């Protein structure tokens, strides 16, 4: 067994760590307060190649593999979660369908633009009646000659307002549904009938917007089916494999946030004096720190192992759900302890702990709730 992180990934990790400390962290509170991501910082992300992490070099990306991506997201998540969201959604769930199942023409057309950050992508699956029950989508795509006509509403779409292209999952056969009746499309901004609806008001993740997308007789050519004509009706599998990958990188993001919270908690516990000594010297606080560190250690091992498995081209459906489940639940336990250690200060907006508390709560919900992860794991364990 080799637990060494390869040299090239270590260098990348250090670069991102510096970027977080020097450029992102100083503006993280501003992004939170203004609920806005400054264009200059997005430009810096482009220059670092962050929008192409998961895209192979032949399409203009860095192609650093799943472990590399996880290491980057871990570092990026030690500050405001909106930064990771801006990048991760675009070169993650927004564009992975094209990479996994797209035609060569689609890859050539879209991936270099996503990788350079010139274009942003989003992933439009969720609907009011199709959250966990992803196969229950109502949005239709009716065939009409050489095109499809899309009608319906998507909601909770991260990056929806800034996206230039959307991976859109729609029903092409109401009888077949998840088995041959769902199709994935790539729809470009500006296509008549495609518009952004309400920007939703959320508990956290300010600076990263979540929107409705409206499709009203939106006509797209058959060429916009991800994978082209042979994959008409096969979009549910595309969507599911996109989510499998996203569950690993989201686990990495939860892990990075948890590590940051542990670091902040240790620092605070060592300098906060009560009853004449630093609170770190009280056994009850020490126990909390010990539990936080132990869970983080466990989470990191499982994440890196699952990422490594995926880089060996192994199927990781079960492992990805385990990682998403454990890392996000763990991070929520860690942030709860962090608030407890910070006491009243942890409840104040002057300290980042309060923001992490709100932001991390989402991680147990999106890209598959904890309940869905357990369902997937149990099904994988018990299937023939
Ligand atoms: N990768 C590839 N194919 C998959 C897959 C995966 N991870 N999961 C399911 N499939 C395939 C199945 O193999 C099946 O095809 P076959 O009959 O040809 O084998 C087809 O898809 C239907 O699968 P299944 O019967 O399992 O579908 P269900 O409707 O029961 O739903 C779950 C499966 C619950 C796993 C799915 O609805 C899900 O992941 N829900 C959560 C969605 C989510 O994360 N929403 C958050 C918002 S999106 S950001």
CATH level 3 topology of the largest domain:
Butyryl-CoA Dehydrogenase, subunit A, domain 3
Going by CATH, the architecture of the largest domain would be Up-down Bundle
C-alpha termini separation = 31 Å
How confident is the prediction overall: mean pLDDT?
A: 97
| Tally of individual helices | 11
The CATH H-level homologous superfamily of the largest domain: Butyryl-CoA Dehydrogenase, subunit A, domain 3
Unreliable runs:
none
Principal-axis shape equals globular
Radius of gyration over all CA atoms, rounded: 21 Å
The H/E string reads: HHHHHHEEEEEEEHEEHHHH
Reading side by side through the largest sheet, how are the strands ordered?
2-3-7-6
Sheet with the most strands, sense and barrel status: 4 strands, antiparallel
Can you tell me the CATH class of the largest domain?
Mainly Alpha
How many beta-strand runs? 9
> How many structural domains in the coordinates?
3
Strand content: 5-15%
Q: How much helix, percentage-wise, in residues?
A: 40-55%
Class from secondary-structure proportions: alpha+beta
Bound molecules: coenzyme a persulfide
What would a concise description of this structure say?
This protein has 384 residues and is α+β, with helices and mostly antiparallel strands.
């Amino acid at each position: 067994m080799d637990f060494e992180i390869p040299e090239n990934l270590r260098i990348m990790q250090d670069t991102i760590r510096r970027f977080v400390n020097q450029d992102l962290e100083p503006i993280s509170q501003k992004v939170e307060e203004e609920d806005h991501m400054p264009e200059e910082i997005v430009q810096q992300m482009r220059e670092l190649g962050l929008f192409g992490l998961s895209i192979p070099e032949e399409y203009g990306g860095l192609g650093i593999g799943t472990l590399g991506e996880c290491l980057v997201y871990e570092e990026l998540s030690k500050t405001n979660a909106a930064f990771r969201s801006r990048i991760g959604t675009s070169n993650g769930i927004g564009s992975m369908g094209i990479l996994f199942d797209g035609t060569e023409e689609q890859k050539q057309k879209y991936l270099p633009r996503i990788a350079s950050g010139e274009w942003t992508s989003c992933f439009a699956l969720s609907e009011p009646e199709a959250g966990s029950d992803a196969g229950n989508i109502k949005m239709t795509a009716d065939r009409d000659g050489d095109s499809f006509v899309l009608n319906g509403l998507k909601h909770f779409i991260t990056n929806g307002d800034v996206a230039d292209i959307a991976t859109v999952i729609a029903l092409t056969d109401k009888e077949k549904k998840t088995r041959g009746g769902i199709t994935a499309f790539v729809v470009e901004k500006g296509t008549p009938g495609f518009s952004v609806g309400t920007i939703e008001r959320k508990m956290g993740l300010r600076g990263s917007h979540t929107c409705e997308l409206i499709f009203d007789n939106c006509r797209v050519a058959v060429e916009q089916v991800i994978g082209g004509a042979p994959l008409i009706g096969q979009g549910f599998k595309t969507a599911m494999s996109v989510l499998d990958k996203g569950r690993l990188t989201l686990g990495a993001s939860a892990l990075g946030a948890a590590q940051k919270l542990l670091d902040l908690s240790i620092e605070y516990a060592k300098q906060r004096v009560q009853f004449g000594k630093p609170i770190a010297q009280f056994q009850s606080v020490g126990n909390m720190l010990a539990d936080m560190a132990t869970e983080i250690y466990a989470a990191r091992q499982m994440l890196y192992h699952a990422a490594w498995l995926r880089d060996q081209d192994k199927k990781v459906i079960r492992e990805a759900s385990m990682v998403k489940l454990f890392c996000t639940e763990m991070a929520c336990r860690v942030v709860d302890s962090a608030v407890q250690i910070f006491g009243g200060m942890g409840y104040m907006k002057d300290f980042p702990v309060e923001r992490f508390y709100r932001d991390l709560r989402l991680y147990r919900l999106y890209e598959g709730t904890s309940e869905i992860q357990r369902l997937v794991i149990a099904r994988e364990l018990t299937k023939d």
